[in-house]
Amino acid sequence: MIWYFLLCLHFIFEIVGVLSHLIFLKLVVFQKIMDFYCSISLGLISLSMILMLVTYFLESAVCLSIGSVFEDDQCAEIPIKKIILCIHRFAEAFSLAAQLFFTIERVLSIQFSKIQRTLFFKLFFLAGFVFENGFAISYVYTNVILGGYGLFWLVTFQLAVIANFPFIYYAKRISSSKYKANVTTYSLKRKHNLYNFYEIARSFLYSTAIYMFAQLTCFCILWGAAVTGVMYSVEFHRWFFVISLIWNANLAIFPWIVMLIHRSQRERLNRLWSQIFTKSKVSSKILGMNGKELVTTPTQFDYFNQLQRAWE
Fold this sequence. Notes:
By secondary structure, the protein is mostly helical. It has helices at 2-29, 36-65, 73-76, 79-111, 119-145, 150-179, 188-228, 236-261, 263-277, 298-310. The chain folds into two domains: 2-281, Rhopdopsin 7-helix transmembrane proteins, CATH 1.20.1070.10; 284-312.
């Protein structure tokens, strides 16, 4: 009975996760509030996670159609299940490589203000996209099609997850230090960009930390299964079922961590929430230095609206 309850949790996490990422794409990626390369990178990460959630949902549905809660040997022999598994593994490896590349790209963009305009950066970004696909295809071919190199990929994924954290922490530190520099050091436009870089790095740092904790927990379980020999027994299907539940929960909360930690995104969500659930419109006020309300003319009101939009 407990396994059917966990299966329901699987489906809930997958449905909620897909909806969460669609909201993330709508409010963050497609709004063009970040620079082009950042939006593309976040979009690719989010789409790969959506693909992981959808394919696991389909895998579970295929196994359930033959009366199996777990991905056992009988379910694994179904041809459509093998195809879905290849797509899932591709998205899994692509997502991990995309997160690591995104962090490196952020460090370069923060450290060198004009690098995004250069031909080198465009080629670097294109090479990163090719690498992500090549990494994912290699994983699918060696691990799923050939059925080998399990421990090699386990170590590789673990190192990639761990390596991503110090990179994003460094991006947060340098963007913060550059933003706090004297205004004579950087122009206001550059400081505004640095503030955006800092907010992105800050929100991604927390999401990466939680993602890393969840992944390392799963990796420890897999290492335990490999050392004890459970990985090669019938009982491993139950272990992997629990691991997949942790993964799917992690994928579902990932976009919300990014949006809620990012200050301007959090404010946009609060305004959206107020518009949906507040019946009476709350009037905005502009206060002077003495704390008294200023009477705004249309020109002043438009000015403050434009100022607010510019800094979001």
